[in-house]
Design a protein that fits this description.
The protein has helices at residues 2-9, 27-30, 33-41, 62-65, 91-94, 230-243, 260-265, 284-288, 307-316, 347-356, 377-381, 400-413, and strands at 45-56, 68-82, 86-89, 99-103, 109-118, 123-128, 149-154, 162-176, 183-190, 202-205, 210-216, 225-229, 253-257, 274-279, 295-299, 302-303, 322-329, 332-339, 358-363, 366-372, 388-392, 395-396, 415-422, 425-432. It is an alpha+beta fold. Strands 1-2-3-6-5-4 form a 6-stranded antiparallel beta barrel. Strands 7-8-9-12-11-10 form a 6-stranded antiparallel β-barrel. Strands 13, 14, 15, 16, 17 and 18 form a 6-stranded antiparallel sheet that branches. Helix 10 packs across helix 12 (400-413).
Length: 433
C-alpha cells in the first residue's frame, strides 16, 4: 500500500507510457465550432502540385544550341467533392501542367488527370485514383449573411492544411483576374487569411458547408480574400464533368455596361445597368421581348450595375432556366423573362463568317483559313487563305466546333481574340463582334 502511494506521488515524473492516458482537462470546452469544422472538412482538402516544362532561349548560347527547357512547379489546394476521386481546384493552379499530383491529409500522393478546366471561371476538375477518399460536396451560397463566421482551409505558401477563420465581409464583389483579362462580379469577400497556395481550397461556413472555392487575392492588400460562390462553382463543375468544358449559353443580346457617356449618347434617364446594344433575330432575347436601348437594371431581384452582372447570373443558372429581369424602356418599367440556351450547331462559325469574314476548315488536325471575305475585318487586318487559327480567347483549339464555341463566348464579351499562325510567326488579333 505504501509503495502504491509513493508511485502515485511521483506519477508526473514517470515516462508517459507509464502514465494513464487521461484526456486533457477542458478539451470539450475548447472544441469550438471552428475546431469542429476543421475536423470535418480538412480530410477532404488536398495539396495540388502542378509541374510544367518551360522552353526558353539562352541569351548567350541559344544561337548554337537552341532553346533550353526547365521545369516549373506551382502549388495550390483542392477539395475532394466525391469519394470516387473528383477534385475541384482553380484553373490557374494547373494551367499548362504536364504532371499533376495531389497529396491527401493522411500523406497519400496520387497522380491526377484533368477532366475539364475553364479559365474564365477559374475552375478545374481533376480525377485521382484512390480508395476510401474523404469527400465534402459543394454547398449553397444564396442565403449567406454578411458577418457570419467562415473558415478557409488550404495550403498557403506550401504549408500543408492551414486553417484560418474570419467573417464573410461582402458578397458580389467585382474583382479583375490576376492578368486583368477577365472581370469577376460575384466573388465572396472574407477577412479569413487567404494567401498564395490557398487557391482551390474551400471556404466553409460554421456548419462545415462549402460555400465557396478560394481563388484570388489582391496584390499588396492585407486581410482581404476572395472566393467563387458555391452556386456558380456547381454549375461550372457540372459542365466540366459532363462535357470537359464550360458550355457557352446563347441569349442573342449584345450588352454594354451603361455609363454616363452612353446614357447621354442615347438620351437615357438611367445611369447604371446593362444597355442592350444589339438584339439578334430569332434569339432567346428576341423571344423575351428585349429591344435595343433597353436597360436591364436587375436580375432575379439583384441590381445590375454592369453587363458582367447579367453574365454572372446566366452562368449560375442552368441552361434554359428562367431569369427574371427588371428593364427600363424609356420612362417605363418592364418585367421580362429570359431563358439562355445552348447555341445551335454551327452558330459560332456562322457568326465568324458574318462578323469577321473568315471561313475556317479542318485539315490534317489543324484549323486552316479557307476563305477571307473581301472588305471584311479579317481582310482589312491582312488575313489570307492558308493561315492557321491556333487559339481563341486564350484557349488552344482542337476543332472547328471548339472555335465556334469560343466565338459565341466572344459575342458576350463583344470581341474575339484569335491567335493566328503564319510561317514561323504567331499573331494575336482582336476582332469586334
Amino acid at each position: 500500500m505504501a509503495f502504491l502511494l509513493v508511485l502515485l506521488a511521483f506519477a508526473p515524473l514517470l515516462p508517459k507510457t507509464l502514465q494513464a492516458q487521461a484526456p486533457p482537462a477542458g478539451t470539450a470546452a475548447r472544441r469550438t465550432p471552428v475546431v469542429a469544422v476543421a475536423e470535418k472538412v480538412s480530410p477532404a482538402v488536398v495539396n495540388v502540385s502542378a509541374e510544367s516544362t518551360v522552353r526558353e532561349a539562352d541569351p548567350f548560347f541559344g544561337l548554337f544550341f537552341g532553346p533550353t527547357t526547365r521545369s516549373m512547379q506551382s502549388l495550390g489546394s483542392g477539395l475532394i467533392i466525391d469519394a470516387s476521386g473528383i477534385v475541384v481546384t482553380n484553373a490557374h493552379v494547373i494551367e499548362g501542367a504536364s504532371r499533376i499530383q495531389v497529396t491527401t491529409l493522411d500523406g497519400r500522393e496520387l497522380d491526377a488527370d484533368v477532366l475539364g478546366s475553364d479559365r474564365d471561371a477559374d475552375l478545374a476538375v481533376l480525377k485521382v485514383k484512390g480508395q476510401n477518399l474523404p469527400a465534402v460536396p459543394l454547398g449553397h451560397s444564396a442565403d449567406l449573411m454578411i458577418g457570419e463566421t467562415v473558415v478557409a482551409i488550404g495550403n498557403p505558401f506550401g504549408l500543408s492544411h492551414t486553417v484560418t477563420s474570419g467573417v464573410l465581409s461582402a458578397r458580389g464583389r467585382t474583382v479583375p483576374s490576376e492578368r486583368g483579362e477577365r472581370l469577376f462580379t460575384d466573388f465572396l469577400q472574407t477577412d479569413a487569411s487567404i494567401n498564395p497556395g490557398n487557391s482551390g481550397g474551400p471556404l466553409v461556413n460554421i456548419l462545415g458547408d462549402v460555400i465557396g472555392i478560394n481563388t484570388a487575392i489582391i496584390s499588396g492588400a492585407s486581410g482581404i480574400g476572395f472566393a467563387i460562390p458555391a452556386d456558380r462553382a456547381r454549375r461550372v463543375v457540372d459542365d466540366l464533368l459532363r462535357f470537359g468544358e464550360l458550355r457557352p449559353l446563347w441569349t442573342g443580346a449584345r450588352l454594354l455596361t451603361l455609363d454616363a457617356e452612353l446614357a447621354q449618347r442615347y438620351n437615357l434617364t438611367e445611369k447604371r445597368g446593362a444597355l442592350v446594344f444589339k438584339i439578334y433575330p430569332d434569339s432567346p432575347a428576341a423571344e423575351a421581348g428585349l429591344a435595343e436601348q433597353d436597360v436591364i437594371v436587375a436580375v432575379e431581384g439583384q441590381p445590375v450595375i454592369s453587363r458582367e452582372d447579367l453574365t454572372t447570373a446566366l452562368y449560375t443558372a442552368a441552361a434554359g432556366a428562367p431569369l427574371h429581369l427588371d428593364v427600363r424602356r424609356g420612362g417605363r418599367a418592364v418585367k421580362m423573362t429570359l431563358r439562355a440556351v445552348p447555341p445551335s450547331e454551327g452558330l459560332g462559325l456562322r457568326f465568324l463568317e458574318r462578323s469577321v469574314g473568315l471561313v475556317v476548315q479542318e485539315s490534317r488536325g489543324q484549323l486552316v483559313v479557307g476563305k477571307v471575305t473581301n472588305g471584311s475585318p479579317a481582310d482589312r487586318t491582312g488575313l489570307r487563305a492558308g493561315d492557321l487559327i491556333l487559339g481563341a480567347n486564350g484557349q488552344e483549339l482542337s476543332s472547328a466546333e471548339a472555335l465556334g464555341r469560343e466565338v459565341v463566348r466572344g459575342i458576350d464579351r463583344g470581341s474575339l481574340l484569335l491567335a493566328v499562325g503564319r510561317g514561323r510567326y504567331i499573331y494575336n488579333l482582336d476582332f469586334p463582334l
